[in-house]
Amino acid sequence: MPDRFYGAGLPGVSISGLGGILVALEGADGSGRSTQIRLLKDWLERRGHAVAEVGLRRSTLVARELSAAKEGHTLGHLTMSLFYAADFADQLEHVIVPALRAGYIVLADRYIYTLMARDIVRGADSGYLERLYGMALVPDAVYYLRVSPRILIERNLQKSGALDYWESGMDIGLASDMFDSFVKYQTLMGAQFKQLQERYGFEVVNGNRTVRSVSNDLRARIEAKLGATLSAIAP
Q: Less crowded by CB within 10 Å, the N or C end of the chain?
């Protein structure tokens, strides 16, 4: 049950009476993150819990505009950063906090750590980002699915037949070839997540394994960390 913000919090948002649980799952495209969110949701609902989902580019405020802007591949780094921050803040105020107050378990398909890692790789100051995302609630549990860049390539190609421009870091000129750029970018992102893990203390999960193995691992970790809390908010 989140009891504090990372920093100053979101103006006008009170965390009093938040009886739910906030769990964040991080990982690159192809890490299996969204699949694991779906499996966790099914598992929790079978146990009688009400579950809400949030994720990047899902706010009613700017999600559509952000997606449209990304398609043109012309977003500046600061503009993209603030777009995503607005998207997160809107979901925090209008989805996450109300759901937690109603006793829901909120599953975040990515949280502030991906946004911070992306911005740092693109040259943003980490101190500035810590202040910007001081509006975020501290989750009850955070898990980062770490997958090697080569496996990420294979999974993305199997899924969509192509690599994403932004997830390949093509906007920062790492390489002219998208495959090379993807490997370099994801390597940089992995290094930033290592630093963020040391700073924020979230758990790293081996995402190179099968869907079932990762799912069982996540359930065991959540049960060990939040079992008593899950029982406390059971219907």
A: C
